[in-house]
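Response to reviewer comment R2.3. The reviewers asked that we include at least one raw input/output pair. We reproduce the pair for Response regulator here without editing.
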Amino acid sequence: MVKNLNKIIFVDDDKIQHMINKKNMLRVKPDLELIFFADPFLALDWLESNSADLLLLDINMPEMSGWEFLELLAAKNIEINVNMLSSSMDPDDFQKSNEFTSVSGFLIKPLQLDVIERLLNP
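Raw output as returned:
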């Protein structure tokens, strides 16, 4: 876990998840800066010139998978702590997340309030 999370970027094509996560995260930590992207390409562009304390990355997106996103981050030498987001508990996804040094966690969607509290207050 990353201590002192102040800025979190979400990359997830599900805008309903954006609204739910924003509401719940700000309930736990009102001064948190949250940045949401439904388009992973726009998120990559943003990360090339900006930074955040944590990236919450959906695995299954239509434009590119979370795994492809991680490979592009590495190719662009963008270093950021990543937690993968998945709506399934596929053990293959969990195992694959261990192949990436930038991935420090694996979270199941929708994010529950107790998970958010542990994430924001380690």
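The two ends are 7 Å apart (CA to CA). The first strand starts at residue 7 and ends at 11. Further pairs are available on request from the corresponding author.
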